[in-house]
Each structure stands twice: as C-alpha cells, then as structure tokens.
Amino acid sequence: RDWRIFKEDYNIVSKNVINDIKPLRNWDEIPKLIPSKIIDLIYKLKYDNPTPIQRASIPITLNNQDIIGIAKTGSGKTLAFLIPLLTYLLNIDDNYFKYEHKQQDEFNKPLSLILVPTRELALQITKEANKFCQDLGINVICIIGGHQYEETINSIQNGGGVHIVVATPGRLIDSLERHIIDLGKCYHLIMDEADRMIDMGFEASLNSIFKYLPTENQLKSTIDSKIFNINHRITLMFTATITTAIEKISKNYLINPAYITIGNAG
Ligand code: ADP
Ligand code: MG
Q1: Which ligand sits nearest to residue 127's alpha carbon?
Q2: Are 228 and 194 in contact (CB under 8 A)?
Q3: Is the minimum distance from the CB of 155 to ligand 1 under 6 angstroms?
C-alpha cells in the first residue's frame, strides 16, 4: 500500500527507520498514536493537518527511535518534537504526576530538556508548549539569561515541580552548577537548531550538559520502567544542515538515529 498520498510526501526522505514506520497522514490516524487530549488541543489551535516534518518524525519518535530532523525554518519543527514529548509525558503513570513528582526533593528534576541557541527561541518554544501544557497539567519552565535565579527557583517550587525545561546552554550550566536544576531524571533530550548552537560556540557547553544527564544504567535504576514505558533516553536533534560537528554530536549522544530530510534542506 502506498502511504504517500500527499504530494509533499515525495519531499520526505527518511533513512535508517526502524520497522519501516510510515508518515502520519492525519493527526487522529488509526492506530491511535497521540492521546485524544492532545489531538483536541491541536485542532483547537487550528493545526488542522501535520506538516511533512511532523508527519514523518512523530511516528518514528513514538516508536522510541532517536531522530535527526533536517528541515528549513518554518517547516513546523516545534510541534514535531513537542507532540511526541507531551505524548510521552501523558503516557506516564498518573501516580508519577500525582504522587511521586509531588515530593519536594523531586521538584527540580525535569523529565525533558529542550536546548536551543537563543533566548528568543526559548521563549517562543515555551509559549507554544504552554498552549498545550496548561490544560494537560504539565509544568514548563524557561531557563535563560536575564531571568533572576530566584524567579526560576520560585516557579519550580510554586508550580509544584517542573516536567519540561526549555533552556539556552550557558544559563543551564549555571543553573546545574547551582543545583537549581537536576537532570538526574531527564530522559528526553531535544536539541533544536543544533547547527546554530554550534555556530554560536556552544559545542563545549553541550558536552558539559551531557555529563549531567543520567547514563543508561542510571536511568534504569532511577526510573521505574513501568511508570515511564521506556528505559532509555530519547534524543531528538533538529538542524537546517548536517555538518561534521553535527555528525560528531550525533555519534556521541544519539543512538541509531533515523535521518529525516524534508525538501531540499541539508
Ligand atoms: P520551524 O521551527 O521549523 O522554523 P515552527 O515550529 O516555528 O517552524 O512553525 C512555523 C509556523 O508554522 C508557526 O507559526 C506554527 O504555529 C505554524 N505551524 C506549525 N505546525 C503547523 C501545522 N501543523 N498546521 C498549521 N500551522 C502550523
Ligand atoms: Mg524552530
């Protein structure tokens, strides 16, 4: 059966895809991949149809495979990583959200980290995430220069813990060194505009941040796989181009990623 029913499907080139997962044709395609609570919000926000990068990458990510998404600005990369990330969080046993995460000493341990090159992009992604998260009971905080550390500490404590952190590398490292944030439970990592992070000189910062992430064995011992459904980190990297620096990061920190190229990007 030819799933490529849309003209733009001929612009999607996917390589190294486990199980030959095909692009989503629409949001509520059967078998249901995305929880209905999220689908309802997607339609409410008038994202009537997924864009090609969303169609190609969401089902692969939800099959627990790492990806490198190569697509131009404006192609809809934000939802391409937010929707699977929110899906993972909603699939976590309610006990985690209701009880375990409500312990004060767990408040500063996000499950997901989104790294971006600039403050503006961090704010933009936080805003987009909040369109979904407020209704879903998921807490997002933005860690960028120019905010007071007290402000960050207060929003973690008053919000009853953080699930998703959106951050620029430099400020995140400061926050990690000050123990404001602890990545010990972080099992989703997203690098957005990875090529720009490298261009802006953040390669060493990224390597330092990766040292704070749990190893696979640590993840297995700290995270109850029954609660989380997966027992390894999922890493998604988005970039407009593939460079040697990007290849190096992917070799060091991604596991058997699928490559998804849209149009003539890359
Ligand atoms: P990129 O990160 O690839 O530059 P964005 O995620 O910022 O792209 O999305 C670009 C614009 O497209 C945004 O205004 C966003 O709201 C809109 N958009 C994203 N996905 C969809 C969709 N499925 N349907 C309609 N608009 C969308
Ligand atoms: Mg973007």
Answers
A1: 1
A2: no
A3: no
Q: Which of 252, 233, 237, 253 lies closest to 88 in space, CA to CA?
A: 233
Could you tell me if 3 and 25 are in contact, meaning their C-beta atoms sit under 8 angstroms apart?
yes
Which whole-number Å values give the CA distances from 206 to 117, 166, 169, 202, in the listed order? 11, 14, 7, 6
ipTM above 0.95, yes or no: yes
Indicate whether residue 124 lines ligand 1 (CB < 6 A). no
Beta strands in the chain (DSSP E): 12-15, 67-70, 112-115, 140-143, 164-167, 188-191, 234-239, 258-262
Residues 54-67 as b/e (b if ≥16 CB within 10 A, e otherwise) read bbbbbbbbbeebbb
Distance between CA 37 and CA 35 in Å, rounded?
A: 5
Structural domains in the chain?
7-262 (3.40.50.300)
Measured distance CA(196)–CA(174) in Å, rounded: 21
Closest CA to 129 of 91, 88, 85, 90: 85
Sheet holding 258-262, edge to edge: 12-15, 258-262, 67-70, 234-239, 188-191, 112-115, 164-167, 140-143
- Please give the number of the atom of ligand 1 that sits closest to the Cα of 49: 23
Over its length of 266 residues, how does the chain's per-residue pLDDT go in tens digits? 334 445 555 688 889 999 989 889 899 886 568 999 999 999 999 999 999 999 999 999 999 999 999 998 889 999 999 999 999 888 876 656 655 666 778 889 999 999 999 999 999 999 999 999 989 989 999 999 988 899 999 888 888 889 999 999 999 999 999 999 999 989 899 999 999 999 999 999 999 999 999 988 887 776 665 556 666 899 999 999 999 999 999 999 999 999 999 886 65
